[in-house]
Design a protein that fits this description.
The longest helix has 22 residues, at about 100-120. Strand 1 (about 25-30), helix 2 (about 30-45) and strand 2 (about 50-55) form a beta-alpha-beta unit. The strands form two sheets. The chain has a five-stranded parallel beta sheet, sandwiched between helices. Strands 6, 7, 8 and 9 form a four-stranded mixed beta sheet that branches. The protein has two domains: about 5-190, HUPs (Rossmann fold); about 210-305, GMP Synthetase, Chain A, domain 3 (2-Layer Sandwich), CATH 3.30.300. It is of the alpha/beta class. Helix content is about 40%, strand content about 20%. The structure holds xanthosine-5'-monophosphate. Xanthosine-5'-monophosphate binds near residues 150, 153, 200, 240 and 274. Xanthosine-5'-monophosphate binds near residues 137, 198, 240, 274 and 315. This is GMP synthase [glutamine-hydrolyzing]. It catalyses: XMP + L-glutamine + ATP + H2O = GMP + L-glutamate + AMP + diphosphate + 2 H(+).
Length: about 325
């Protein structure tokens, strides 16, 4: 009989065996997976671990503060907080191709981890919260030749030039199992129960070019949408819900003026592992309320649509 407590003990032993007395850098993305990986590795090797939280400026509202608080106050795990907004937004300027955006972000993370490793006198390992579905989806076998659907930011290994090896203790797990392991490790429920958030962040929820202005607009819309979902008591029934800012402007009317602003799409799905997903069937009154609040409260958005596409044929994220 296999239990999470056993898994935890086995993994701790494996991590100790793999790492020896080496030093490990763990990248935190703000999501559940990397947080669980970090706490597990910390249990295994204590202060041989340095956590690095890269704030790429593509986080949701208040997300960066929440992660820093969890690690510093709740766990007392040392955390390096890197403010890399300029680097990420600078590198994304002018980029519109989804795979190019993803590849740039993945490479920028690695560069920053490498720089932090140098600062602590070198690290032997890079730890990541990669899950089983991340590995499968980055290279999907559809029966014919293999096709990459999306390059997940933390899949694909490390560049040859690097001397670091990967530590990925969650590589065999699905999301629900990671949450169970998180509970086993004592992570607070509000953290464990959070909707998944992709490493590339808002960059893949802004089709086309990403700018700071667009990120700011999207953060506001997304916050209102999630607030409404929480208030309606629906948060835990949904696998993932978020707003997307479309690169399309439409004409509207507000008061007695004309508006010409962006369209916001709302997405909410149910799923067990993120590999397939169904659309969450909100009632129309709930959606109207979200649309009204977003258009009234967010300058720059004058139209809201709901994404009714399941996965497949859609994917959960828009890029
Ligand atoms: P898709 O859009 O492929 O997403 O249907 C499936 C699940 O994976 C998340 N996702 C990512 N997570 N790095 C991550 O850590 C990534 O690059 C990435 N891309 C997608 C997505 O949010 C959903 O939960």
């Amino acid at each position: 009989d296999w239990t999470m407590a056993q898994f935890r003990d086995t993994k701790i032993a494996e991590i100790r065996e793999q790492v020896g007395d080496g030093k490990v850098i763990c990248g935190l993305s703000g999501g559940v997976d990397s947080a669980v990986a970090a706490v597990l590795i910390h249990e295994a090797i204590g202060d041989q671990l340095t956590c690095v939280f890269v704030d790429h400026g593509l986080m949701r509202m208040n997300e960066a503060e929440q992660v820093v608080t969890l690690f510093r106050d709740h766990y007392n795990i040392p955390l390096v907080h890197v403010d890399a907004e300029e680097m990420f937004l600078g590198g994304l300027a002018g980029q519109t191709d989804p795979e190019k955006k993803r590849k740039f972000i993945g490479a920028a993370f690695i560069d920053l981890f490498e720089a932090e490793a140098k600062k602590i006198g070198g690290a032997d390992f890079l730890a990541q919260g990669t899950l089983y579905p991340d590995v499968i989806e980055s290279v999907s076998f559809t029966g014919g030749p293999s096709v990459t659907i999306k390059s997940h930011h933390n899949v694909g290994g490390l560049p040859e030039r690097m001397n670091m090896k990967l530590v990925e203790p969650l590589r065999e797990l699905f999301k629900d199992e990671v949450r169970e392991l998180g509970r086993e490790l004592g992570l607070p429920e509000i953290f464990v129960g959070r909707h998944p958030f992709p490493g590339p962040g808002l960059a893949i929820r802004i089709p086309g070019e990403v700018t700071k202005e667009k990120c700011d607009i999207l953060r506001k819309a997304d916050m209102i949408y999630l607030e409404e979902i929480r208030n309606a008591g629906l948060y835990d029934a949904i696998w993932q819900a978020f707003a997307v800012l479309l690169p399309v402007r439409t004409v509207g009317v507000m008061g007695d003026g004309r508006t010409y602003d962006s369209v916001c799409a709302l997405r909410a799905v149910t799923s067990t592992d993120g590999m397939t997903a169904d659309v969450y069937p909100f009632d129309s009154q709930f959606l109207s309320q979200c649309a009204t609040r977003i258009v009234n409260e967010v300058k720059g958005i004058n139209r809201v649509v709901y994404d009714y596409t399941s996965k497949p044929p859609g994917t959960i994220e828009w890029e």
